[in-house]
Amino acid sequence: MGTATVVFSAWVMSAALFVLSAGSGHVRRFADLRATIARHALVPQRWRRVMPHVLLLSQIGVSCGVITALLAGRGILALFGALLAAMLWIFLIYETILYRKRRGYSCGCFGRDVPVTRVSIGRTAVMAIVTTVGVPVISVAEFVPSSAQMAMILAAGVTGALVARILPEVTVSMAGR
Fold first, then answer.
1. How far apart are CA 49 and CA 46, in angstroms?
2. 118-133 burial by CB neighbour count: b if 16+ within 10 A, else e?
3. Given pLDDT bands bounded at 50, 70 and 90, which one contains residue 172?
C-alpha cells in the first residue's frame, strides 16, 4: 500500500498545485476573470458578480487545504480532497460546455487567454478521476509521509502541475507546425 499511496499523493498534489496556479492567475487578472465569465454567458446574470469571488476563494482555499493535508498527513485530506475532486468535476463540465458552445474561447485560467481544447478537457478529466480515486486511497491508508516521501510527493506534484499547465499550449503549437 505504501508505493500506491505515495503515487496517488503525488497525483493529488499535482492537481492541487495546478488548481492553485490557476487561481493565482485569477488573482493577477481579477478584472479579466469577471469579463471572461460574462463573455462566456454560461452563468446566470445574477451570479456573474459573485462567481469570480467564489471561484477564486474556492480554488485557493481548497488547493491549500489539500497541499497542507498531504504534507502534514492528517485527517483533513478526506474533506479537502473531496472538495478538490468536486471542483475538478465542475471545471470539467464547465470546460466541456464552453468548448461545445463557445469554441475558441478561453476559460481564463492562469490569467492567460488560451482557448479551451480537447487536450485541456482531457487534462481536467484525468485530474478529476485521479483525485476522485486517489483521495480515498490515501485517506483510508491514514498515510503520514516521511521526509523523503514528502520531498518526492512535492517534486512529483510540482512537475505534474507544470506539465499539466503547458500541455494544451504545447499540443496546439505542435499541431500548428
1. 7
2. eebbebbbbbbebbbe
3. low
